Structures are given as structure tokens and as C-alpha cells.
From TrEMBL:
Single GO MF descriptor: oxidoreductase activity
Domain FAD-binding FR-type: 2-106
Protein name in the entry: Ferredoxin--NADP reductase
InterPro entries cross-referenced by the UniProt entry: 2Fe-2S_ferredoxin-like_sf (IPR036010), 2Fe-2S_ferredoxin-type (IPR001041), 2Fe2S_fd_BS (IPR006058), Beta-grasp_dom_sf (IPR012675), Cbr1-like_FAD-bd_dom (IPR008333), FAD-bd_FR_type (IPR017927), FNR_nucleotide-bd (IPR039261), MRET (IPR050415)
Keywords for the protein's UniProt record, in alphabetical order: 2Fe-2S, FAD, Flavoprotein, Iron, Iron-sulfur, Metal-binding, Oxidoreductase
Length: 349
């Protein structure tokens, strides 16, 4: 299920003092496997200091481009992002899982007006979406509000300014810096006033078809609430995050007891007993079962499975809709068993 492929790094480009763009060559026999939709991500597996790390990174390149490019911001010491920013080089080989994710834009024959809000490394999937929007129809327009500390810390700054030149009157970007006053940027953070400034002042005559938001959760919720207050329907608002700041004490308390679990992965079935205070994915991995996973934070879609028998409760969910939950889908990295028996199927998704 969690099939990784060795891909060669063709280029590592410094974007800011603390971030890089990594481009992978995709061999001809894997072109179909690594075909992607704008906004999707890949998962990278790397052993560092004897520990296997899996990290999900959004794709910044267009589906039409050669290879796959991701943006990696340094957020740890001794982890993968540190390694990518300090040691990774062209010619290195990394284990990569094929693209996945639901935060996507699909081109159509009809002209679309798209608005996006990003902060920090949240720009990465937005880059792919913006390029696809602009390339897919001559009348498409794209408005971006992008928050950072300064121009120096702005990932893909050069690429964004080039898009402005290449798509005059169709691509509009508003840089917002919180720690530096720049002549080509607003000062402050993305808040209600900046959302309204872009949509109700600068582009009040545009009717937007969809809104994409990626960044820290407080920013996402603020923009989402502001859009809803302006009459935007929820189905037109799309968001993605890979880290959250929820407090553990707010999570439901798992029940005591044991659950007999049956797991199906790649047409194989495994049985074991687990403590209900454990998360299903943790118990599965403890049994050395090769189940798919990536973020382990409930904010990607890698570990989705379907419940065939029994019940489980998720402590966090940023992905599944109410309808999907009703159909039995769970994020196994966030699910605690509630019943004496639980059968989950990773193949039936």
C-alpha cells in the first residue's frame, strides 16, 4: 500500500535563508505513477540518525512541467527539513510516495476566477494551483494574498513576481509582511481588513468561483470565517494545513479496554489485540504492518481506511466530510477503537 519509489534529486535551489526548492527527476516508466493534480503533495521517506522519518510536502510545480518540485522550509534541528536545507544535493536519491491529496484545482473549459490566501510555506501548493489556473484558460484570473515576515523570508518571491510579468491583468499578488516595511508589500498580517481589501476593494468587480487557503490554522480559520461573513458558501472554500496547534486536553478521552483488530492491507489480512487508548495506526505499525501514513497529525489523507465492523472515534479530522464518515471512513492515525472488535480495510478507499 505505502509504495515508495527511489527518485533522483535534479536540483536544490535556495529560496530564502531557511527554505529550498527540491526538484526530482521522474523516469519515463514512472511518469503515470507520479502524474498529479495541482495542489497535491508527495511523502518522502528518509532514515536520519537511525530513525525512519516520513514527511509530506506539497508540490509547487505545474502538472505540465518536467519533474516534480516541492518547497521545504527548515522547521527542525536534525530532522528532514534540516537535512534538506543543509545537506541535500543534486544527484541524491530519496524514497518518494506517489502524489495524493484533496486540496486540488481541476481545470475546465470555463473561465474561472480564483482567490488564494497563504502564509509562509503554505504558498507551496498555491504555486502549483496558480500556475495551473493561469495556464489552463486565457481568461482565468488569480488573486493571491501572501503573508510572511519580510521579502527575504518569502518563499517563491521571484517566481511570483515573474508570474505578474507573464500574466499581466490576470495574476495579482499582495505581499504582506509582519516584520519589515517594504515598498512593494503591505505591513501587518493577514486579517479581516486585508481579506476585504483584496476582495471587496481591489477586486470588487470580480466574482470568484473558489477560494484556496493554506497556512497556520488560526489564519485559515480567520480567512474562512471572513469569507463566510461575506456570503461565500462553504463548498467554495478549500483549505489545507500540515501542522495544528490544538491542545491535547481538548481531545476526547479514549476508553479503557482491549479491542481485537482485523486489518486488511494490500489484500492481506492481519489480526491482533490493542489497547483502546492507542491510536489504530500506532497499533498497526507496532505490528510491523506496512500501512500507508504520512503526517500522523490528522491533516493529510494518507492513512484513510474504511471500517467494516465495529466503531472508532477520531480525536481530530481536517480531511473527511460528514458523508465520508457516515460511509465508514476514518483517519487511522487519529482513531481510537470503541468496540470489542474492529475491522478496517485500507484497500477499500
Amino acid at each position: 500500500m505505502s509504495l515508495f519509489h527511489p527518485l533522483t534529486v535534479s536540483k536544490v535551489k535556495k529560496l530564502t535563508p531557511n527554505s529550498v526548492a527540491i526538484t526530482f527527476d521522474v523516469p519515463k516508466d514512472l511518469l503515470q505513477t507520479f502524474a498529479f493534480t495541482a495542489g497535491q503533495y508527495i511523502t518522502i521517506k528518509k532514515e536520519i540518525k537511525g530513525e525512519e522519518l516520513r514527511r509530506a510536502y506539497s508540490i509547487s510545480s505545474s502538472p505540465k512541467s518536467a519533474g516534480i518540485t516541492i518547497g521545504v522550509k527548515k522547521v527542525d534541528r536534525g530532522g528532514f527539513s534540516d537535512y534538506a536545507n543543509s545537506r541535500l544535493k543534486a544527484g541524491d536519491i530519496l524514497e518518494v510516495m506517489p502524489p495524493e491529496g484533496r486540496f486540488v484545482f481541476k481545470a475546465s473549459d470555463q473561465a474561472k476566477n480564483i482567490a488564494a490566501f497563504a502564509a509562509g510555506s503554505g504558498i507551496t501548493p498555491i504555486m502549483s494551483i496558480a500556475r495551473t489556473v493561469l495556464d489552463s484558460h486565457p481568461d482565468n484570473k488569480f488573486v493571491l494574498v501572501y503573508g510572511n515576515k519580510s521579502n527575504e523570508e518569502t518563499m517563491f518571491y521571484t517566481d511570483l513576481t515573474k508570474l505578474q510579468l507573464d500574466y499581466t491583468n490576470r495574476f495579482f499578488v499582495y505581499f504582506i509582511n509582519s516584520q519589515a516595511r517594504e515598498t512593494d508589500a503591505l505591513f501587518g498580517r493577514i486579517d479581516v481588513s486585508t481579506v476585504n481589501y483584496a476582495l471587496k476593494n481591489k477586486h470588487k468587480d470580480l466574482q470568484f468561483d473558489a477560494y484556496y487557503i493554506c497556512g497556520p490554522e488560526p489564519m485559515i480559520r480567520l480567512v474562512e470565517d471572513t469569507l463566510k461573513e461575506n456570503g461565500v458558501v462553504e463548498e467554495n472554500i478549500h483549505f489545507e494545513l500540515f501542522t495544528t496547534d490544538e491542545i491535547l486536553e481538548e481531545f476526547p478521552v479514549a476508553e479503557d479496554g482491549q479491542t481485537q483488530v482485523e486489518v486488511t492491507v494490500d489484500d492481506e489480512t492481519f489480526s491482533f489485540s490493542m489497547d483502546r487508548k492507542m491510536l489504530v495506526l500506532d497499533a498497526v505499525l507496532k505490528e510491523n504492518i506496512d500501512a500507508p501514513y504520512s503526517c500522523q497529525g490528522g491533516v493529510c489523507s494518507s492513512c484513510i481506511a474504511r471500517i467494516k465492523e465495529g466503531k472508532a472515534d477520531m480525536v481530530k479530522n481536517q480531511i473527511l466530510t460528514d458523508g465520508e464518515i457516515a460511509d465508514g471512513f476514518i483517519l487511522t492515525c487519529q482513531a481510537h477503537p470503541l468496540t470489542p472488535t474492529l475491522k478496517v480495510d485500507y484497500d477499500d478507499v
